[in-house]
Amino acid sequence: MARLLCGIDLGGTKLAGGLMRPDGTLLDKEVVFDHAGKDEQVVVHRMHDIVNALLARQHVTVEDIRGIGVGFAGHLRFRDGVTITTSNFKGFKIKNFPLRRAIEEYFPTRVIVDNDANAQGLAEYRFGAGAGYGSVIFVTLSTGIGAGIILEGKVYRGMTGTAGEVGHMIVNPGSPFVCGCGNHGCLMAHASGLALPQVVAAKRKLGVPTRLRLAEAEWDRIDGKAIGDGLAAGDELCRSVVLEFADYAGIGLYNLFQIFNPDAFVLGGGLMSWGGLYLERIRQKFQELVREMLFDPVRILPSKLEQDAGIIGAAALLLEEG
Amino acid sequence: MARLLCGIDLGGTKLAGGLMRPDGTLLDKEVVFDHAGKDEQVVVHRMHDIVNALLARQHVTVEDIRGIGVGFAGHLRFRDGVTITTSNFKGFKIKNFPLRRAIEEYFPTRVIVDNDANAQGLAEYRFGAGAGYGSVIFVTLSTGIGAGIILEGKVYRGMTGTAGEVGHMIVNPGSPFVCGCGNHGCLMAHASGLALPQVVAAKRKLGVPTRLRLAEAEWDRIDGKAIGDGLAAGDELCRSVVLEFADYAGIGLYNLFQIFNPDAFVLGGGLMSWGGLYLERIRQKFQELVREMLFDPVRILPSKLEQDAGIIGAAALLLEEG
């Protein structure tokens, strides 16, 4: 039997683990939502329980797996496997923590810890929408915005390991909208889930009509799901938000196209549930900007692996050459 | 004797060739300025004359060189060595032309044709300001703006070969300033030599004082040299242009930092002659944006090879592994 790969997706909301065959087949997975806000050691212990449960259910031991790959929702030093910082979203805060070593203490196996967007990008490149393309930029459009950069088959991580933070790219320096990082007018301040309350507030102030009836406190924490529901119900404000977010995402992809000239973009993340209107408008904005500067076709594709991309990509880290 | 490398820098203004040792020592060079606006075959013939003159002066033949590398100021298909388009700056227009094959017809040797910013970046990485760093982004701030992306020692070119067109990155979608490509608010529309007339006109309209006394037709073609002279003479408008250009260059570098997390940036191009005020303001803007998101020091360095980077880099293309 080919040895299995264990992948863990350590996000701000979700902690998920899975066992995968080297061909990308996910055999089993386990997902929990109770780790955010917990102490780092508690989170690691929770990961330990998940891995053990998966091994037990597949009737294998840690000797039967090739290793454990982890996709982490935050900055980290790739070479050391030490986390630097997370966005503190929903209390998820694992700072300056030797995550790789902590996992190695539980399991005598190879452990690789990487950024979650890198893992998702690798998954889409190997087994998903990006399969068969040379260089693929995976962009997650979600609560935050980030990228996994796969160049000629390899994850590109940069000096520290924090490459791909495309959400921090400034696209409108005079913007009134501010990102969690403190800068005005970065892509995340215009087109991420975290930006929704301020963008929606600006549209309400401009008098864009809406049939949504929310208390002020609800407007202040409006999320992608609420906008998607409003869009489905034909609400004008929600539609206007989706189109504006798509335009900024299109600008972001265009910028990345000029920089990377990749074969394909793969788009994932929660905002993709806004559906065809959103994706088509992103493609349209991209075309509007790129015009005759596109010399070979570039694909803009939705994620194929969706929620499982994190686990599959984390496991796939073990397939990369050392 | 180690075999020599021949490098040709084919720009819109300047056509330069040189012979280099594999250690980066430039033995001889020849520069002409009479090729722009000429027919493609005439330009290739001019390159032929330059190479022959260099060979004769060094008392060697084409058998004594390892090949000819060419850095071309425009888009091209790297694999085919066929040009796609140039900016038509000063009549320099070599479109859909099999440049590599045309040179091979004159010389029975290996020929590599690449974008000029890629060549310059490779030169700085191997023999210049970027030597010793892992991943280096070379950015040329000149009539246009472009980049040579050297990742872990290799030129990154993308699908077609047009990666690194960072000047087309949109940094201000609502901008009144337009690029030669037709888009509003790309980096080139705000911070390149080609943008000077429109940025200067806007400042004059705002009433920024100046002691420059130019005819309207001169204002309409004001260039980096005139701004540099004005800056040196203490002119307020020129100083204001230099600072604004530096701020946009700083935004561009910050965006590239978040995307690539490189070890170093190397800055070249004619606008760098604006000197310390310009470079320091670029660094300052970068710091202002990056703040606590910088986990390891990143260098922002001026080019070391300057005018010779193009020839040296073109020759250095022959040192890359096939």
Strand order of the largest sheet of chain A: 3-2-1-4-7
Characterize the largest beta sheet of chain A: strand count, sense, and whether it forms a barrel.
5 strands, mixed
The interface involving the most residues is between:
A-B, 46 and 46 residues
Described by the principal axes of the CA atoms, the overall outline of chain A is globular
The Rg value of chain A, from CA coordinates, equals 20 Å
What's the total number of strands of chain A?
A: 12
Distance between the termini of chain A: 22 Å
The tally of helices of chain A reads 10
Query: Uncertain runs of chain A with pLDDT below 50, 5 residues or more?
Result: none
Quaternary state of this entry equals: homodimer
How much helix, percentage-wise, in residues of chain A? 25-40%
The SSE string of chain A, one letter per element, is: EEEHEEEHEHEEEHHHHHEHEH
Helix/strand-derived category of chain A reads alpha/beta
Classify the beta-strand content of chain A into a percent band: 15-25%
Mean pLDDT of chain A: 96
